[in-house]
Specification:
The chain is an alpha+beta fold. The chain contains five helices and six strands.
């Protein structure tokens, strides 16, 4: 089943809110953060924000920051949040998009990026100057 096409302004709003979530994850150390457009292959949501952390505390911190920043940007609270107990995979359902915060090992195991890789990747800007972002990527 293919989802009905969304109005451009609605999809633009989803894309911007996903970017807010991605920047929030990145700001708390989320790694390999991607936004995948899945609306054309999955009728229940438009996009996934996928990121990972190195330990359960970081996974919780990332999830908390995503929720806070999405709300601060005028978004709503998630409709549901699952996985905070063991913080191996936290799923935050916002309706139009879903945020997945994985523990590194869980992300490697489930291979969500490959599973949903048919979706387009939406670009997002972490908000840092390019030199600073390059230094962070190089571990400086």
């Amino acid at each position: 089943m293919t989802a009905a096409p969304r109005e451009p302004e609605t999809l633009d709003r989803v894309r911007e809110t996903c970017s807010v979530a991605a920047r929030a994850a990145w700001s708390k150390g989320g790694s390999d953060t991607v936004i995948l457009s899945v609306g054309s292959v999955l009728a229940i949501t438009d996009a996934f924000v996928i990121t990972s952390g190195t330990n359960p505390r970081m996974v919780r911190t990332i999830a908390e920051e995503v929720e806070a920043k999405v709300k601060a940007a005028g978004g709503r609270a998630p409709l549901s949040v699952e996985g905070l107990d063991d913080a191996r995979w936290v799923l935050m359902d916002y309706g139009d998009f879903v945020v997945h915060v994985f523990l590194d090992e869980a992300r490697d195991f489930y291979q969500f990026d490959r599973l949903w890789g048919d979706g387009d990747r939406w670009e997002w800007d972490d908000g840092t100057p390019h030199a600073e972002a390059a230094a962070r990527a190089a571990g400086e």
